[in-house]
Amino acid sequence: MEYVIEMLGIRKEFGGFVANDNITLQLEKGEIHALLGENGAGKSTLMNVLFGLYQPEQGEIRVKGKKVNITNPNIANNLGIGMVHQHFMLVENFTVTENIILGAEPTTMGYIKKKKAAEEIAALSKKYGLDVDPHAKIEDITVGMQQRVEILKTLYRGAEILIFDEPTASLTPQEITELIQIMKRLIAEGKSIILITHKLKEIMEVSDRVTVIRKGKGIGTVVTAETSPPQLAELMVGRQVEFTTVKTEATPGDVILQVQNIVVEDYRKVDKVKGLDLQVRSGEIVGIAGIDGNGQSELIEAITGLRKVKAGSISINGKEITNLKPRKITESSVGHIPQDRHKHGLVLDFSIGHNIVLQTYYQQPNSKNGIMNYKAVSKKANQIIEEFDVRTGDGEHTPARALSGGNQQKAIIGREIDRDPDLLIAALPTRGLDVGAIEFIHSRLIEQRDKGKAVLLISFELDEVMNVSDRIAVIYDGKIVDELDPKQTNEQELGLLMAGHSKKGAQA
Amino acid sequence: MSNRVVNILVPIISIILGLIVGAIIMYASGYDPIAGYQALWQGIFGDMYSIGNTLRQITPYILAGLAVAFAFRTGLFNIGVEGQLIVGWFAAVWVGYTFELPAIIHLPLALLAAAVAGGFWAFIAGFLKAKLQVHEVIVTIMLNYTALYAVNGLIKYVSDGGYKTPTIHETASLRSDFLKDLTDFSTFHYGLIVALLMAFVMWFLLEKTTRGYELKAVGFNQHAAEYAGMSVKKNIILAMTISGMFAGLAGAMEGLGTFGKMSMMNAFTGVGFDGIAVALLGANTPLGVLFGASLFGSLKYGALNMPNAAGVPEEIVSIIIAVIVLFVASGYVIRLGLQKLAKKKEAK
Hints:
Chain A: Pfam families: ABC_tran. Chain A: It is found in: Cell membrane. The complex is a heterodimer of chains A (508) and B (348). With 508 residues, chain A is α/β, with parallel strands linked by helices. Chain A has three domains: 3-237, Rossmann fold (3-Layer(aba) Sandwich); 242-333 and 424-508, 3-Layer(aba) Sandwich (Rossmann fold), CATH 3.40.50.300; 346-420, no CATH class. A six-stranded mixed sheet of chain A has the order 6-9-10-3-11-12, sandwiched between helices. In chain A, strands 18-21-22-15-23-24 form a six-stranded mixed sheet, sandwiched between helices. In chain A, α14 (405-418) runs parallel beside α15 (435-450). Chain A starts with a strand and ends with a helix. The relative contact order of chain A is 0.11. With 348 residues, chain B is mainly alpha-helical. Chain B has a domain at 58-294. Chain B is built from 16 helices and no strands. In chain B, α1 (3-28) packs across α16 and α4 (81-98) runs parallel beside α6 (136-158). The radius of gyration of chain B is 21 Å and the shape is globular. Chain A binds chain B through residues 304, 306, 325-331, 336, 338, 343-350, 354, 358-359, 361-362, 367, 370-372, and chain B through 208-214, 216-217, 220-221, 223-230.
């Protein structure tokens, strides 16, 4: 068997912490090879070693059987290795062509041959069925299309081996289907793919083989056709994982959150929420289903006081909170797991302990008369770290930046749930997390519900909305277009409603 | 190698390397490096007089360094320490000669005036940043010039067309006969105590108070601070103002301590700008600033002895100081070198 890439016995340490320990990954020509592992298991580290960003302490890398020394990304590029990053590296106000040739501009006498490059890109796009317009500006095209530009970028540079880092994280279900087709076409044209993911469904659908790593150690490689999602989950987490969320029937009580006919503008002063009504009662989880950009972010920001409400009213426990300051709203017993944990959720340069008291630092016992009581902070932090199984390198003193995404998220969720708010808003709480962490977070949300709290869940993942919610509100174009019982609907019906088809229209 | 050892080794190696390069420069220019460094040493520690003046030189550097470091720690770049220092200097001197009060009231009042004036000068930049998103670097640079010429104008006005203010009353002075006798008639004054106290204040404020927690949170991540219910605008203005207060006090050191008055200036004192280097040398911590200011102040003052005692021209002296500071500031490179060395040893 010919391997295009072999990573043999790779070991990478960061000052005593072993991120990769004796990991072996062998990529066959023409296969889609999934790299599966929990958050912080060392997937990205391994790929950064392959891409020349890190140097391994032990082990060797072979490309087409020949031992190579990849000391920087340029060498990786020259060896035909290309990376499609999770967070796109594109210049928003450049065209597709300009972005693709950036850093490798074809020139004659200092003059960029843009037209010729555009033709080449169009040809590549056609060959792989990517359907990208070389002259479109990045800011005008969809996220799915931007990802294809990233793919084209690697192909344009002659990549034979493509690494996809969590490629479906920000895509809609339709875009995911399209991406899978594109990946299959790439394989058909002789490329090889490494797919970094923790979504078992995608692995089963698209990959040929799977290499699993757990806590930095290589667990082994299995053939996809000979395995099953539960087995993969067990390999990844190291224990059995519940797939369907277990929960009892909801017993909704009083109305906690009442949103009446609100209008909210986005940063460009365009109405994004257009007369939206919503109720969440105690003891129920209401899931907002919708495609990104239909007003979800603006709705949450309006409820939590981060964005002005132009018209309408919001109340919590019957108390009006419209346009109050964020602190007043927090003090009205609202918890918020924000959509973007790096932007809003954490001060990354603070230790995890300091982040735990982000909303409560000014209250007793964390401080008294303006003097911080870091002993109390530390006690609270350790309690949450323990209770929510936040894995840190150095306890509460670990900088938040140094935690993996899943552990950062667990810390935020711990912080919000610990305040025991009457209304808990969870925006994309499991984005980018692995099955183990997702299971944990879902069970904590349900636990809050069972304690008689109101939970508002916003998610782009239909599975999540359907599994966790007691009631689904579909948002489209700034309005709740329908409310459904998760037990009496299906992905198709939801998908159509999310895309703006009314129920009747769909039946007709 | 443990982290602690590295942390101590890095500045020491940096200074040694800086001195070696400085020696090469002196040698290449035809001067005796050994005599040069002997003159530097004598200039810093030679006698009580030198020691007194070195300490006096260090004092404003500490406060200027604290001002810059405080701003950095709260996410701001205060490049206007120079201007805040100038208005602080004038305010202190004005209070110092205008009022006649007992020392126990007069001196604190003069210091307070300097802090308020410096704080106000910085407040302007903080306010514009918070309310109108004007970048503080631009505003503070411009306010440096405004301060320089406005204060020159004021000096002319209060001295009826003269070029310097009246001398402050004894009751507002930081000087004392005791220190004068102790250090053989140097200009050493009690300002050092103020500076050390302020270093403690900065540490306490940032590390122990809820206000410090907020200021740092806003400095690191405004979005998260807003999400957590903090007022971003209020904290930006406050951070800038506090930074300016440190700078104003640096001015008071010159006004109430070293000079006892203020003269019209053609150019900036340079202390405010050196404060940026001091803060960076000290990694923006109060203790680090004390070390940074000591290094800076010692070199600056001690080097004055080099032209006289060793015949090394002032220009070369400036280059040597710059080289030493450069090496200390690029401690990162040395840190990297030490790590590589340690790794090689391990591999063997």
